[in-house]
Structures are given as structure tokens and as C-alpha cells.
Design a protein that fits this description.
By secondary structure, this protein is mainly α. Helix content is about 75%, strand content about 0%. The protein has 13 helices and no strands. Helix 6 runs parallel beside helix 8 and helix 10 runs antiparallel to helix 11.
């Protein structure tokens, strides 16, 4: 599109003038947005945990902060406690948040991690299975349930979930990582290599991905459907590599 739709200055100016004619729109605060922001501050902003907690405290106390977004600060604190190996403090916060919003994926995701850290994976499993009955095939809940099964050493159960999950969400590296881990525990070396190859392909490391699939094909029974699947995927990755390099 960029090759055939250049953006001359007069077109940009015209677009700006048209945009200014639209009336202003006031949107209600989005709790999902603020929960996402809290997650970034707690884990991905590159600041120390104490600084993240200070940010939550300062921002929550501002007069301009709407009441509806205040649970996001509690959620952010819970993530910091989880990352600092304080699962009891995190659980206490998350249980209260869940009571306010029982099927919020942010809370369910973090609470399942807290139960795992507390060596109570059965609680996490019950929590996620109950939520999945109301939200079948939800990606966040499904991937968390697979993770719980792995922590419980129920690798075959995890495998069933992850095979379907990676088929439906092929661009999610978390799914492939968990699938690789489950196959490792089950001694499925060929499938482990295939899962690792998909992660490499998502990072555009085509040569290494093809190498892993080649190794997986060599481990598969000769003439088997598994070997044919690996070989077909190698052909696909070669095409993707050529397209990528042509750019």
C-alpha cells in the first residue's frame, strides 16, 4: 500500500484539517486499559519493584484518578509481590479483586500464578476450569490451565490443550514454549524440536527453525505421518524465508 499510496504534504494537511472538524469525544475510563498499564509498570517498564510500588501509590492518591480505575493499582501491586516471591500478599489482593469482578482475565491469570507459587495448583485448576465453563476456549484461561497441568506433572493433559491452542494461536510463543516443555517431560524429542522451531520461525530465525525441523524429521519414524508433517513444514518455512529475504 505504501508503494502505491504516497503521502504528499497537501494530503497530510487536508487530513489534519478534516480531523479538526470532528467534535471532541469523551470516553469513559477503560479498566482493561488501566490494568494493562499497571502490568507494564509492574513488569516491563524497566524500573525497580520499589519504584513501581511508589508509582502505584502516588498515582492512586491523585484527585484526578477516577474511582473505576483504582483496582488497577491493587492489581499492579499484586504482580510486584508475585515477582518478588511474596505469593501470599499477592493472593490476598487478588482474591479481593476477584470478588469485585469474578471473571476478569487479568485477575484470574495472576491468581492462578499465585496458587502455583503457593504450591496449590489444584486451586488454580478449579478456578480456571470454572471460568472456562462460562468462557469456553478463552485464550488466557486456556493457556493458564495448560501451565497448571504442567506444574502438576499432568503432561498428557497439558499436551492435549496445547496442541489445539497452538493450532488456533500459532503466533503465541508462550503456547509453543509450554508445548516444548510438555514434550520434553514426555520424552517426545521430535515434537519438542518442532515446537522450538516454531518459536524460532516467529523470530524470523528461519535457518535455525529449518534445522530443528530437519532434526525432528530425522527422529520421526520413516514414512510416518509425523515425518510428512515435519517435511511439509520445512517447505513452508523455506518459502517464508525467501519472501522475507526478498524484502
Amino acid at each position: 500500500m505504501l508503494l502505491t499510496h504516497p503521502l504528499p504534504e497537501d494530503r497530510i494537511t487536508d487530513s489534519r484539517e478534516r480531523a479538526q472538524n470532528y467534535p471532541p469525544v469523551r470516553l469513559q475510563p477503560s479498566i482493561d486499559y488501566h490494568l494493562s498499564r499497571a502490568r507494564i509498570v509492574a513488569r516491563y517498564a524497566g524500573i525497580e519493584k520499589k519504584a513501581a510500588l511508589d508509582w502505584f501509590d502516588r498515582t492512586e492518591k491523585k484527585r484526578s484518578t477516577p474511582e473505576i480505575v483504582k483496582p488497577s493499582f491493587q492489581y499492579g501491586r499484586a504482580l510486584v509481590y508475585l515477582d518478588e516471591n511474596k505469593p501470599q500478599e499477592a493472593e490476598e489482593i487478588l482474591v479481593k479483586l476477584k470478588k469485585q469482578d469474578p471473571y476478569n482475565n487479568f485477575y484470574l491469570d495472576a491468581l492462578s500464578d499465585a496458587y502455583i507459587a503457593l504450591k496449590q495448583p489444584e486451586k488454580a485448576q478449579a478456578l480456571l476450569e470454572q471460568s472456562l465453563r462460562l468462557k469456553p476456549n478463552n485464550a488466557v484461561l486456556t493457556i493458564n490451565l495448560a501451565n497448571v497441568h504442567i506444574r502438576q506433572e499432568k503432561y498428557n493433559e497439558a499436551l492435549k490443550i496445547l496442541q489445539r491452542y497452538t493450532h488456533e494461536h500459532p503466533n503465541d510463543t508462550i503456547g509453543w514454549n509450554l508445548l516444548s516443555e510438555a514434550n520434553t517431560h514426555l520424552g517426545n524429542s521430535a515434537e519438542e524440536l518442532a515446537a522450538r522451531a516454531e518459536i524460532l520461525a516467529l523470530r524470523a530465525n528461519w535457518n535455525k527453525a529449518i534445522q530443528y525441523y530437519t532434526q525432528a524429521s530425522q527422529l520421526a519414524p520413516l514414512g510416518s505421518l509425523q515425518q510428512a508433517r515435519f517435511d511439509a513444514r520445512i517447505d513452508q518455512l523455506m518459502v517464508q524465508r525467501e519472501r522475507f529475504l526478498s524484502l
